[in-house]
Every structure is written in structure tokens, then in C-alpha cells.
Design goal:
By secondary structure, the chain is α+β, with helices and mostly antiparallel strands. It has helices spanning about 1-15, 70-80, 85-105, 155-205; strands spanning about 110-120, 135-150. α2 packs antiparallel against α4 (about 155-205). It starts with a helix and ends with a helix. About 5% of the residues are buried.
């Protein structure tokens, strides 16, 4: 019987092991960008500057620079009523909840239970002896119980789940920002195109 159980035990341990993350290939890059003297400065004589992407920065209410009250109202209405944007924001909330739950699995868990019992005995119950007389009584019992538990992340499963949930959250946040920017851009473009067409029509008349 022991000979049959040993392979099963090894297979069960192998099944619990989490798949290690794939190694990320890092290409070799020079320490500094090399350029000839002709391209070392821009056309206006200023030196080149390394680009700093700002896709994670808040773009703000840039459309208010046009100072058009109708455009401001249209953009606010689009942001409020767009189903595409609402779906993207709901995915961000869902991903954030999953990331919080996955991160909490790495921490110790503390459960606190409070139990309160109230018991009342009747005076009409039978007495213990023929000479005794039963009396009514009330008894209160309160019990507070705390339990601390912690799951050891032996095979890295919990950490992998937490990292995956965090990556999913970042992806959904970026998608929501992109959807918001696209919505505002499309609304502003449509309104400014309409305003330009109306102005050309007025001039033609």
C-alpha cells in the first residue's frame, strides 16, 4: 500500500507548484545615445532632450481652453452618459477589488467572533427535591473568540496571483484613461467641425 501512495504523493506536490514567471529578455543597450555632431542639436540650436512619456498624467479639462460653454456641456454629458466609459470604469473597480483580495491573501487573517447568550428559567419548572421551590432566573453568557490564521506561500501561488491581479488593475486603469480621452477628443472634434461648417455656411450666404 505504501508503494502505491508514494507516486500519488509526489504528483500531488507537483500539481501544487505554481508555474514560475517567464524570464524577461533584456536587450543590450548603450549607456548613452551616440549621435554625430550634425544631429547633436535641433534646428533651433537647442540640445535634444530625452522624451518623458506622460500618459499616466491627468490631462485635465483641456477642452475648456476653447472657452465654449456648449462644448463644455457636451463633454460633461458625454462623460456622464457614455456606456463605454461606464463599462471601463466598472472594470477598474472590479480589478481593484480583486487586487485588494489577492494582496490580503499574503497577510495574516484575524477572525473575531462574539457570542452572547441569554437564558431564562421558569419558576413553574419541577423543583430538584420535594422540599425545594423553583424560582425564576435569568443568566447572561458572553464569549469573545479570536482566531489568527496564515497561509504559507510555499510555491509562490499567492504572490503570483497578487502580481497578476495588480497587472490586470494597471491594464484596466490605462484602458479607462484611453477610453475617456478618446471620448472627449471625439466629442470636441465633432463639435468644432460642426461649428466650422456653420461658420462657412454663414459666410457663403
Amino acid at each position: 500500500m505504501k508503494v502505491r501512495l508514494w507516486p500519488w504523493f509526489c504528483l500531488s506536490l507537483a500539481g501544487c507548484a505554481a508555474t514560475p514567471p517567464a524570464p524577461v529578455a533584456t536587450p543590450a543597450a548603450p549607456a548613452a545615445w551616440q549621435a554625430t555632431q550634425a544631429f547633436a542639436v535641433r534646428a533651433d540650436g537647442a540640445p535634444w532632450k530625452l522624451a518623458q512619456p506622460g500618459d499616466t498624467l491627468d490631462k485635465g479639462r483641456w477642452w475648456t481652453l476653447f472657452r465654449d460653454a456648449v462644448l463644455n456641456d457636451l463633454v460633461d454629458q458625454a462623460l456622464r452618459d457614455s456606456p463605454t466609459l461606464q463599462v471601463a470604469l466598472s472594470r477598474v473597480r472590479q480589478a481593484r477589488a480583486l487586487a485588494d483580495a489577492s494582496g490580503a491573501a499574503l497577510l495574516p487573517r484575524f477572525d473575531l467572533n462574539l457570542k452572547d447568550t441569554r437564558t431564562r428559567t421558569s419558576a413553574n419548572r419541577p423543583a430538584a427535591t420535594s422540599q425545594a421551590q423553583a424560582v425564576s432566573s435569568i443568566q447572561n453568557d458572553t464569549a469573545l473568540q479570536g482566531v489568527v490564521s496564515y497561509e504559507l506561500d510555499l510555491f509562490g501561488r499567492l504572490r503570483s496571483n497578487s502580481d497578476a491581479a495588480s497587472a490586470t488593475l494597471l491594464s484596466n486603469v490605462a484602458a479607462a484613461r484611453s477610453a475617456r480621452l478618446s471620448l472627449v477628443t471625439a466629442t470636441a472634434t465633432a463639435w468644432l467641425t460642426l461649428a466650422a461648417d456653420e461658420e462657412q455656411l454663414r459666410l457663403a450666404q
